[in-house]
């Protein structure tokens, strides 16, 4: 069993239990379920930098990244730094994330929030909306094209934007309607090894009617400028900011430096 298979195995049990404790009807009656969502697509389009900053305390490949900072301080600082959106990991078992982190963030920031998790069931889409997410991530490596089609349709029906995350050429075939953003992950989710050239290799093969974002292992402004020339508009950065003592401060410095190069 590789890491991704383990994650999906545990996620199936987790979703099964959550359905019992928090049935769909209960989620649909929550106050956040009724809120009007914010558009990450619009924010990326009008941004000079397109940075989506992530709150990530731990990962299966790196172990603990940062356990000393509070989610409230970090996301507030990210917002002040001028990010296009914030990504919050909600997987507890492998990433030390939580739904509470997303809910707390939603109550204090006014920019789009991406719920970063391993979505394998339509229940999680309803759950994402009920906790205050604006965007969900569908990972092509763990879903069939039919599931992606179905899940993205459900997401759009409740006003959520959808990112499909791909890692190789075969997964490009899973791009379907009702998707807003195509994310190319430089990290192989089966081995968790990062290949920085993956984005560059796949960029020209992605249909131009989608916003393209690059994910994983991004820490260099020159690399972002190279990716922008290949049509990438958004850049998801987590570990580079989170491994610093003050993630928001580093994020602000990074965005300011990048802005000077893109104006």
Summarize, please.
It contains 13 helices and ten strands.
Written description of the protein model:
Helix content is 44%, strand content 17%. The protein is of the alpha/beta class. It has a single domain, classed as TIM Barrel. Strand 8 (181-185), helix 10 and strand 9 (211-215) form a beta-alpha-beta unit. Helix 4 crosses helix 6 (99-108) and helix 4 packs parallel to helix 13 (247-262). The N and C termini lie far apart (47 Å).
Structural topology:
Elements: H1 3-21, H2 24-28, H3 40-46, E1 51-55, E2 58-59, E3 63-64, H4 71-81, E4 85-89, H5 92-95, H6 99-108, E5 113-116, H7 122-130, E6 135-139, H8 145-157, E7 161-166, H9 169-172, E8 181-185, H10 198-202, E9 211-215, H11 221-229, E10 232-237, H12 239-242, H13 247-262
Helix pairs in contact: 4-6, 4-13
**Low-confidence segments, ≥5 residues, pLDDT <50?**
none
Based on the coordinates given, report the CATH architecture.
Answer: Alpha-Beta Barrel
What is the CATH class?
Alpha Beta
Strand residue content = 15-25%
**Could you give me the name of the CATH homologous superfamily?**
Aldolase class I
CATH topology: TIM Barrel
Question: Keywords, please?
Answer:
two-stranded antiparallel ribbon; globular; 263 residues
């Amino acid at each position: 069993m590789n890491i991704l298979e383990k994650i999906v195995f545990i996620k199936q049990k987790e979703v099964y239990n959550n359905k019992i404790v928090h049935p769909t009807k209960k989620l649909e009656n929550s106050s956040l379920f009724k809120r009007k969502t914010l558009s990450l697509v619009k924010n990326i389009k009008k941004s000079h930098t397109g940075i989506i900053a992530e709150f990530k305390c731990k990962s299966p490949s790196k172990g603990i990244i940062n356990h000393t900072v509070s989610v409230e301080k970090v996301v507030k600082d990210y917002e002040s730094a001028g990010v296009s959106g914030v990504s919050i990991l909600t997987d507890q078992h492998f990433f030390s994330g939580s739904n509470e982190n997303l809910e707390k963030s939603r109550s204090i920031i006014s920019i789009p929030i991406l719920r970063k998790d391993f979505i394998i069931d339509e229940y999680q889409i309803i759950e994402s909306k009920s906790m205050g997410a604006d965007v969900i991530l569908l990972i092509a490596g763990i879903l069939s094209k039919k599931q992606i089609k179905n899940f993205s349709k459900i997401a759009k029906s409740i006003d959520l934007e959808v990112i499909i995350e791909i890692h190789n050429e075969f997964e490009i075939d899973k791009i379907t309607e009702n998707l807003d953003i195509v994310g190319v992950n430089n990290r192989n989710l089966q081995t968790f090894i990062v290949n920085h050239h993956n984005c560059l290799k796949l960029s020209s093969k992605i249909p131009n009617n989608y916003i393209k974002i690059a994910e994983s292992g991004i820490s260099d402004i020159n690399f972002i400028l190279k990716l922008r020339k290949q049509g990438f508009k958004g850049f998801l950065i987590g570990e580079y900011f989170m491994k610093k003592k003050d993630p928001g401060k580093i994020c602000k410095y990074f965005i300011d430096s990048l802005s000077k190069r893109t104006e």
